[in-house]
Structure formats: C-alpha cells, structure tokens
Amino acid sequence: MTQNIRSLSTYILMNKAFINGKWIDSLENKSFGILNPASQKVIGNVPDLTIEQVNSSILLAHDSFDKWKKISGKERGHILRKWFDLMIKNKEALAALITQENGKTMKESLTEIELGASYIEWFSGEAPRINGDILTSPKREKQLLVFKEPLGVCAFITPWNFPSAMIARKVGPALAAGCTCVLKPSEETPLSALALAKKDRKKEKQKGKNKSFFFFFNKLSQEAGLPPGVFNVLTCSTKSNSDVGKLLCTHPLISKISFTGSTKIGKILLSHCSQGIKKTSMELGGNAPFIIFPSADLKKALSGLIASKFRCSGQTCVCANRILVHADIYDEFARLLKEEVGDMPVGPGNDPATDIGPLINKAAADNIEALLEDSVLKGAKVSAGGKRLGETFFEPTVLQHVTPDMRIYQEEIFGPVASLIKFSTEEEAVEIANSTPFGLASYFYSRDVEQIWRVKSSLHFGMVGINEGIITTAEAPFGGVKYSGFGYEGSKYGIEEYLHKKYVCWSV
Ligand code: ADP
Description:
41% of the residues lie in helices and 21% in strands. It is of the alpha/beta class. It has two domains: 305 residues, Aldehyde Dehydrogenase, Chain A, domain 1, CATH 3.40.605; 190 residues, Aldehyde Dehydrogenase, Chain A, domain 2 (3-Layer(aba) Sandwich). A seven-stranded mixed β-sheet has the order 14-17-18-13-12-20-21, with helices on both faces. It has a six-stranded mixed β-sheet with strand order 9-8-7-10-11-23, sandwiched between helices. It has a three-stranded antiparallel β-sheet with strand order 5-6-24, with no helix packed on it. Helix 2 runs parallel beside helix 11 and helix 3 runs antiparallel to helix 5. The termini are far apart. It binds adenosine-5'-diphosphate. Adenosine-5'-diphosphate (ADP) binds next to helix 11 and helix 12. The site of adenosine-5'-diphosphate has 15 residues, from helix 11 and helix 12.
C-alpha cells in the first residue's frame, strides 16, 4: 500500500510552474524543494519564479480574460463539469500527492479531493445561472437594468492545510463567473495545485505510452477545456512571498484578491489592497469553541469532537480549539475522550492504520511543544498523550484545566491537542465562546430545543454546527466574522464574490 501510494503520486508530480498553458522554469534558474512532512525527504523541486514572471503571468491572465468572459455560462459550466469528472476519475493519485506533501492520512486526502471536486461541480451548475435583474423605475421613460459581469483577473493565495480543496473552492466560482485566475499556492504544498493543471505531453511520450496515469493527468484542466491563461499556478519560495503578495494586491490588472491563511498575513495583504483598491475575500484564522451542554448525547458529541479536532492532525481553521464541557458531565466526557484519543495510531499518512499523521513541519511541532509547556506551567494537566514523536509527529493529547491566562486558550492551536475547559452555566459558556477576536466556526451539542435556539443566536461566529462536528460542504456558505475575515466560499452566495453588478439606466 505504502509503495503504491508513492508511485501513484510520482505519476502526477510536476516540477514547473504553469503559466498561460505552458510549463515553465524560473528565469533565474532558482528552485526550492518540497518536503514530505513524515519522512522529511524532498519529494520534488519547483521553480522560484521571479517577480517579472509573476507580472507577466498577470498580463497573460488579463489577455485571456477577454476571451473567457465571452464564452457562455453554459459552456463554462460544461468545462468545469469535465474538470470535476477528471478529478474524480483520478482521485487516488491526486490524494496520494496530498498525503506526500501535506502528510494527512490517505483517507483524509481522498475526502479532500472529493470535497474540492464538489465545489467545481457545484459552480459548474451555477455558471449558467448568472442572472441579472430589471428594477421597477420611478419614471416611465427610464428602464433600470442590472447586469452581472465577471470582475477580471482574480489572484488567490492559499495555505498548505488543504492543498487542493482550498484551490478548487476559489477557482471554481471565479471561472464559473467568467474571471481568470492567478494562483499562488503555499510554498509547502504547491504540487497538488500543479497536479490540477496538466501533465507535460513531451515527458509523457518519453516515459512510455503504457503508463495510463500519464494520460489521465495530461487531461486535467486542459483536457477539460480550460483555455491557456485562464488558470495559472505560480510557484514562489518563502523569500519571495512578501514581494509577490504586494505585487498581486497592488497590480492594476488584478481585480480581486482571495486569501486563506493567518490573520497576521491577512492584515498585511489588506493594507496592500487598500493601495490597490481591490475587492477582497479573507478567510483567516479561527479559535472554534466546541460546547457540550448537559443534555447532549455524549457519544455523538465525542465522535463529532474527534472528527472536528483531529482532522489533518488538528491543523484546520475550523478545528475545535476550546472544548467547553458542562461541570455535570465534565468527568465522564473527559474519561471517554481520553480512552478514544489513547487508541488513535500516529504514523505516516500513507500507512492505512494511521489516524494522526505528521504536522506540516518542525516549526509546527515546536509550537505545540511550547503551547503545552506554557499550559502545564500555568496549571493544566495532560491526561492523554503529550509527547512529541520524532521531528514532526505529535501524540494526540488531552489537556485539562485550561484557563484564560494560557496561550493555548487564546491562540489557534493547529495541532492534535484537545484542551478542555469546565463551565457551569449557559451564559458563561456563550461568554467564553465569544471572548476571542475570532469568529469562524463554532459548535455545540444539546438536546434542549429552547437552548439550541438561544445559543445559535448568541454565538458571534460565521458558522455554527449544532450536534455536528463537520459542517463544510459546497452547498453552504463558508466564511467568518471579526478577525476571521469576510466573504463567502461555496453555495449560491459564493459566485457573487466574483461578479459586479453593472447598473444600466436606459431612457426609452
Ligand atoms: P499558515 O500559517 O497557515 O501557513 P500563512 O498566512 O503564513 O498561514 O500562509 C498562507 C499563505 O500566505 C501561503 O500561501 C503563504 O505562502 C502566503 N504568505 C505568507 N507570507 C506572506 C506575505 N508576507 N505576503 C503574501 N503571502 C504570504
């Protein structure tokens, strides 16, 4: 199985950037390596593009916009639908690549490909339904019309925790709307983004015609029918991030920036965007409360928590971060959680037995160690796990008696640590839940209908899961409030982020 996964992913590994339908190297011949977080071995090298190359990709995406926006919505929808079909057809190989560069388990990687593809599918259906409006005029001689038009070239900056789905859910609505895309994936995980594009035909021939996977991957974005310049993937190293980010946010030919990442970088990008007067969507950090009230079904709450907390080894912006448990059920729930967590195998993501894969890099594991040290020093108790294993692995951990003075209470953990906080009243739980500057996802478990209605109204978050730990789906709007950002991804609202409403007043 391990060998299988490795060979599946090497079929689709690309070591060039993708601009205007061509695979290109850095003009300065610079490249950077991508590490497998489990083995710490380099699995591929990609070009570190120069700022001139980034600039020229924007010009080319702008040239392509004129043609792409004129293709009918129905036809754009057909192309996206073909892209979806190709992703699903090749999901094992695409998933294997995610596991290689991100570390998450193969099961999670497959779920990610299905999730990403579902956004492409959803927006393939939205493309032919971009309808304008006719408004009632106050004057008989004037007709008031609203046309929805694509914004132009959209730039995307994406993180490493969903190397494929995060891209699909930005690119899907943009392409459906008639925009063209310049994507800068995370320098930790650019290979999955490149795999969504296309495989080099020449290389395919050199390596032999009997390798059917080459044929499949030759057929992703381009085989689906996306014209050159419509979807571009820029690979840039950590060193270039700041210059490239600034260029994208201030370039006159970029119409929109959509960013997913930390609040810290989001703020920097927003300040650049104020210079460039850009429309923006920001999906920033979270600090999700997960509240368990006394009437909750504890087994359901436990499985919801495990799914929400330990997904991608705890490295998602919607992972449960502060687990608030009512005093009446605290001891029982802590015991159940400890038992469950103690049984979760840690290992490389390509081992089918693994539940908890590695963290993305050594720095991430260092951070978890520091958070735990700070908590224990201030009185928290580790009741399960707590140890770093090698350079990037960390045992799934249960931490009790967490208090507001601890860093782990205030910060997004981004690791497999479940931190438990005891509460006594509903008001107290809601107050704690709302007490950070973040407002992305929140969760609570209760079977008291009146309480459910009150609490869902009081939580100041963009998303609320009630008796459910996994809430993301293409059909629903994903987005936050407060320091977690603004804008919506997915759903019937998602495409509006890529359209402007042109008002026409026609005197007749
Ligand atoms: P994370 O901590 O989850 O990696 P970041 O906000 O650091 O989140 O990174 C998210 C994305 O932002 C990545 O693609 C990264 O390369 C990019 N990035 C990081 N620093 C900058 C910067 N100064 N300007 C523009 N993009 C950046």
